[in-house]
User: Fold this.
Amino acid sequence: MKTFRNTIILFIVFAALLGFYYYNKSTKKPTATANVVSISKSNIESIDIKSNNNEVTLKKSSGNYELVKPINYKADSINADDTLNSLTQLKYSRKFSDSDLKKYGLDNTSFTIKIASNKGETENIIIGNKSPVGNAYYVKSSKSPDIYIVDANSVEKFLLSGDYVFNYIDKGIFTIPKDKIAKITYINSSGTHDIQKDKSGKWKYNGKEINKDTTDKLLDDVVLLNASGLDLNKKAKGNNSSFTLTISDGNKSEEVKFLTDDNSKYYIEKNNENIGLYITKDQLNGLISDTNSAIK
Assistant:
């Protein structure tokens, strides 16, 4: 009985090894490059990602990437660069040929990446089912007849879910550099307050010089202010706690209205544009406190 059991175990092990042998034989080991995407990062003009019934499109404009879907807005430069790096460095561990794409979920998938180059080329990347062997996906490029096996972690970086729009957009509020700001106008329920730098570089309010540490803190609050979330296309009407902050370098002005209905989220309307970006009251505490210190 014991001998029979050992024979069964050996047979199972042999079958597993035989299966792995044929799998290993049918797939080709990667070349030295093993890149899935053939278009180089420097030549990418736009990328369009679709997954989970969501879509995002990044397009290069004057050397920088803009978000054009689902909204038109400046893209987060770090996130855009990371996305391009992940895409152009996407590598396969194995590749093989098979005309039956349906077996691998590559015939009708909703997870795709379309790449367009500045030379008029396009390349479509299709992500299919997960492979039963290893933590990987079946991936197909329109530039190759082969089917690739690609690490799941590398592929899942492109899944769109949750706050995916917020992740791709620029979160900065003001763009004028700290050393270029020459005037700050603060409008709240009590009126309009102008804080201005004179020709000697001293900051004043109502003709009275403001302590340098006070203005430095205020300027830091302004230039470091970033949105903390996005309620896409949310329009707040604003109440008495709402306020407006305008900064200027003498030539260019940036007006931002912080509109709140509940004194919790303050929605950002910049130069009359509001896409639903907001900051929290906790974020504003320092800014409001330092502004009040400057005008007291």
